[in-house]
Amino acid sequence: MASHPDFVNYVAEQLREAGAIRSRKMFGEYGLYCDDVFFAVICDDQFFVKITPRGEAAFPDLPKAPPYEGTKDSLLVEDVEDRERMTGLVRVTCEALRSRHQKKRRNDHAL
Fold first, then answer.
1. Is 107 left (phi over 0), alpha (psi -120 to 50) or beta?
2. I need a labelling partner for 107 at 20 to 30 A (CA). Which of 6, 49, 61, 99 fits?
């Protein structure tokens, strides 16, 4: 079952304080970006955030589940009404993903 654009727009609106949020249709579902960092997917009207060590440590009570069969687990955010919590998770996650990407680029240039 595909996600509804209204749900995707609602989640993006809830996250507006985390940065510039945009969604992109991917494989019949949606990918989410914050300041051009791919950090989450919405599948079957459920919001899944990539797992990072910092995100996991800051939000240990969030359940983990694969967005769809055959993928790695992500953090499943069931309460999309909690704007403050979601914003915090996205900020921590994107910061970790950005620094991971920068380290990888530095290591690639060192070769």
1. alpha
2. 49
pTM: 0.88
DSSP H helical ranges for the chain: 5-14, 53-58, 83-110
pLDDT in tens, 16-64: 999 999 999 988 899 999 999 999 999 999 999 999 999 999 999 999 9
Ordered DSSP codes for 59-88 = -TTS-EE-SSTTS--EEEE--TT-HHHHHH
Domain count, the chain: 1
CATH code of the domain containing 91: 3.30.1460.30
Are the C-beta atoms of residues 15 and 21 closer than 8 Å to each other?
Answer: yes
| Domain assignment of residue 13, given as a range | 5-110
